[in-house]
Design brief:
By secondary structure, the protein is an alpha/beta fold. Helices cover 34% and strands 23% of the residues. 46% of the residues are buried.
């Protein structure tokens, strides 16, 4: 069993926020791999399904924590405990200020880098989970970060956003097979984005 968790805030008010790109990624995975309907479980919207890989199907649980961003880890921790999984069996999709819009990076372990959803997840399952970091760019000054992440994507963002959320879903067999470096490379091949300074966006 693999847990694929997207970070975001619940409710229509936040649905199109940059902070909710993790939810968007999980929604894309659910559509692409025909996961079951979302159900309320683990203080989350959860859906089970399988992702076909070259070594056979991998069972996966998609999670969209409904605890609000700053407490996301509580939901993920409950699911990890229920399935008796290790933190390495968890992939968390989330918005990354320090990557230019549309860029994508996989990473295992490390700190929270100021991301409260990641900080909460570390508090509940430790730091050694797999991170799927989806670039949204940086507003340029720390005082503007909150407004940036809690505002909606602009019309000009829609092309790269659709490409990126589609690519993370289409390339998922590599992720499910544990091939994170190849997964990252395939996502960037399917959804190429320029390596810009994230603060220049």
């Amino acid at each position: 069993m693999l847990i694929l968790a997207g970070l975001g805030n619940p409710g229509a008010k936040y649905e199109h926020n940059r902070h909710n790109i993790g939810f968007m990624a999980v929604d894309g995975l659910a559509r692409r791999w025909s996961f079951g309907p979302l159900r309320s479980k683990f203080q989350s919207q959860a859906s089970e399904g399988t992702i076909e890989t070259p070594v056979g199907p991998v069972r996966a649980l998609l999670l969209k924590p409904q605890t609000f961003m700053n407490d996301s880890g509580r939901s993920i921790g409950e699911a990890v405990k229920f399935y008796k999984l290790a933190s390495a069996d968890v992939v968390v999709f989330y918005d990354e200020l320090d990557l230019a819009p549309g860029r994508f990076r996989m990473k295992t372990g490390g700190g929270a880098a100021g991301h409260n959803g990641v900080r909460s997840t570390i508090a509940h399952i430790g730091p050694d989970f797999r991170r799927a970091r989806m670039g949204i760019g940086h507003p340029g000054h720390k005082d503007r970060v909150l407004g940036h992440v809690l505002s909606d994507f602009h019309k000009v963002d829609q092309d790269w956003l659709k490409a990126l959320t589609g690519a993370v879903a289409d390339a998922a067999p590599l992720l499910a097979a544990g091939e994170d470096e190849r997964y990252q490379a395939e996502v960037l091949r399917l959804a190429p984005a320029e390596k810009l300074d994230p603060r220049a966006t």
